[in-house]
Amino acid sequence: xxxxxxxxxxxxxxxxxxxxxxxxxxxxxxxxxxxxxxxxxxxxxxxxxxxxxxxxxxxxxxxxxxxxxxxxxxxxxxxxxxxxxxxxxxxxxxxxxxxxxxxxxxxxxxxxxxxxxxxxxxxxxxxxxxxxxxxxxxxxxxxxxxxxxxxxxxxxxxxxxxxxxxxxxxxxxxxxxxxxxxxxxxxxxxxxxxxxxxxxxxxxxxxxxxxxxxxxxxxxxxxxxxxxxxxxxxxxxxxxxxxxxxxxxxxxxxxxxxxxxxxxxxxxxxxxxxxxxxxxxxxxxxxxxxxxxxxxxxxxxxxxxxxxxxxxxxxxxxxxxxxxxxxxxxxx
Length: 332
Hints:
Blueprint: E1 3-11, H1 18-26, E2 35-43, H2 50-61, E3 65-67, H3 76-86, E4 91-95, E5 100-101, H4 105-113, E6 122-131, E7 137-141, E8 172-175, H5 176-182, H6 196-207, E9 209-221, H7 240-266, H8 272-278, H9 288-299, H10 307-316, H11 321-331
Parallel strand pairs: 1-2, 1-4, 2-3, 6-9
Antiparallel strand pairs: 4-8, 5-9, 6-7, 6-8
Helix pairs in contact: 6-7, 7-8, 7-11, 9-10
C-alpha cells in the first residue's frame, strides 16, 4: 500500500502566488509507486479569489486537493493546527502559499525519514534560499550559519530552539507519530502560541527527534505582508530596540515551551529536560539558579552568544505571566 504524503496548506488572500506554489508541489520527483501525494487546503476566510483559483487549478489539473472547510478566520497558528487535527496521512509537510519548492524537496525529506524509526515522533527541516517577490533566489540562505554549535550531528536538540526561531514551517515535515502528539495540544492553548511551526518543532523535539538537512530546498519568497519573514542581515551598530526584540522572541518561545510542558505532563510523558527549561519561567529574576539555567540553555548551544550577551538576555527576560497563568488555567 502506498504511503500518503499530506501537504498542509493554509491560505489567506493568496490568489497571486498560490498556483505557483501548487505547481511546485505537484511537480515533485517522488516515486509515485511508493507514495501518494495529497494537498489539504484550509482557507482562512480570504477576501480575494484564492479559493476559486485553487478550485479551478484542481479541476484543470485533476489535482489531488481536498479542502478542509471552516467559516472562521482563525489566524495562521490555529489554521494550521486545524489542518493537523482534521487530516490524515503517513507524513505531513507544512506549506506556505507563495513559495517555490525545488523539484527534489520531498524526495530528499523522505530519504531522511526512511533512516529512522517512524513509530516514534520524527521531524525533518531544511534550509531555504531567501527569494525576492518574483521567487528568484538571492545568494542568501535563510539560516545562514545560525545553526553553528547548535546541532548534535544533524539533530537539533530541544534546548537549541528556546533561544531563537530556527525551524521554518515552509520547509518542515513530520511523521504520523508526531501528528498524534501534536493533536494532544488543546486548541485553547493556541491563543498564546507564537507560531505553529515553532510549537510543533518544540513538541516533536521534546518527545522524539528533529533532523536537519543542510541544503536549501525551497525559494522562500519575501513579500511586504509576510506573517514571518527572513531575519534582516543589517549589520549596523548595536541597537537596544533590536536587542529587546530578540529578548521578546525568547520570552515568546518560553511560552511555547510552557505549552509543551503542560501537554506532555497531561499525557504523562514529560521529560526532565522540558521541566528544567520551563523552570526559567518561574525562578526569580537574577536568582542564581535561574542565571545558571538560562546560561546553560543559551550558551552551551551557540558559539555566537558569549556569556555577557546571555547575561543581558537573562536580566531583560520577563516571563509572560498572563499567558502562563491562562495556559495553566485550562489544565485545572
